[in-house]
Amino acid sequence: MKRLTALTLILMMAFALLPARASQPGLAIVTLNFPAFDFSRQVAGPHAQVSLLLPPGVDAHSFEPSPRDLIALQQADLLVYNGGIGEHWVVNLLDSLGEGAPRALAMMDLVDTVSEELVEGMEDAPHAHARDEHEDEHGEDGHGEHDEERELDEHVWTDPRNAILISLAIAEALSELDPANADDYEAAFLAYEAQLLALDQAFREMVSEASRRTIVLGDRFPMRYFTLAYGLEYYAAFPGCSAQTEPSARTIAFLMDTIKEQQIPTVFHIEFSSQKASRLIAQETGASTLLLHSVHNVSQDELDAGATYISLMYDNLKNLKEALN
User: Is the pLDDT of residue 7 over 70?
Assistant: First the structure.
C-alpha cells in the first residue's frame, strides 16, 4: 500500500504535464472488475470504448494499478469501480485530480450492502451460527455504519437485482455525459434489464423446485448477496474477502461432517482457486466438485470465449441445480 501511495503521488505530479484525452469517437469508460466492465459494455453499446484495468486471471483483491492504468483512469469520461476497502486508492486519486477527475460510480454506493459474516465452521468462527443480517442503509456516508468487527461484503453484483440497479446507474450517467445518445442508452438498459430479470426468475424457479437449500464451499465465500436473494444456506472455509487460502484441519473436518450428515452431493470451489480443500473434502466424502463463479474476474480463455455476467451466472444455475437435487 505504501508503494502504491508513493506511485500515486508521483503520477499526480506528472498528470499536470499530460495533454487532454486525445479526441476519439465515443466516451471512454474505465472499469476495475469484470461485472463493472460487462454492465458498462452492455449499456454503452457502440457509443463508448469500455476498458477493464483488472487483467484476466488476476484476483481483484491483490490488484495494484500500473502507471499506465492510472493515466487511463485520469483520461476517462466515466469510471465504474466497486468501492470496497481495497479500492481506497481510487478515492484518493479522484480527490487528487479535483475538477479534472472523471465521473465515478462506486457500485457499493448504488445498492443496499451487508456485512461479511462468520458462519459455523469457518476459520475464526464460533461453534454456533453467528448469522449477522445487518443491513447497511447506504446513501448517508456512501456505505453507512461499518460493523466494528466485520467489513462490508463487497460482492454486491452476485444478486442479479443489484446488477439491474448498477446497470441503471451506468445508463443514467452515460445519458448525462452524452445526451445525444440518451435514447440508445435507455433502450440498451431496458433490453439488458429484461435479460437480468429472466436470470433472476430462473434462479427463483430452480430454488423453489430444489430438494435442499444448503451449499458447501471448500473455499472463500463471495456469494452472500446471492444466497440472501434466493434463500439459500451455506457453509464455507472463509468469508468472501479473506486473505487466507489454506483452511485448518478443524474447518476441513467440519465441512466433511456437514456433507456427510446432510447428504450433500457437491462441494463447490470458486474461480482461480487451487481447489486443494474442495478436492480433499470430495475425496473423503464421495462428493463431486463444481465451480461456483463469483464473476469477480474471468480467465483469458473465458474472455476470449465471449463470457458475460449472464452466461457465467447461467453456468452457476446449471451447477446449483445439480448440487441442490
Answer: no
Antiparallel, parallel or unpaired: β 78-81 and 103-106? parallel
Rounded Cα–Cα distance for residues 213 and 173 (Å): 38
Residue 71, all three cell numbers:
493515466
Pairing of strands 135-136, 113-114: antiparallel
Task: Name 24's Cβ contacts closer than 8 Å, sequence gap at least 6.
Answer: 49
Residue linked to cell 457509443:
47
**Cα Rg of the chain, angstroms:** 20
What sign does the CA torsion over 293, 298, 304, 306 have? positive
User: Sign (positive/negative) of CA torsion 219, 221, 223, 229?
Assistant: positive
| Amino acid at the residue 3 | R
Residue with cell string 446513501: 139
The Cβ of residue 252 has, within 10 Å, a number of other Cβ atoms equal to 18
pLDDT digits (tens, 9 = 90+) for 90-131: 999 999 999 999 999 999 999 999 999 889 999 876 544 333
Helices and strands (H and E) in the chain: how many? 11, 10
- Strands 214-221 and 233-239 turn out to be parallel
Instruction: Give the span between the Cα atoms of 161 and 197, in whole angstroms.
Output: 7
d(CA 208, CA 79): 38
C-alpha cell at 275: 481447489
> 301 pLDDT exceeds 70?
yes
Which domains, from first to last, does the chain contain? 2-109+152-197 (3.40.50.1980), 203-323 (3.40.50.1980)
The pTM for the full model equals 0.87
Mean pLDDT, the chain, whole residue set: 88
Q: Are 33 and 297 in contact (CB under 8 A)?
A: yes
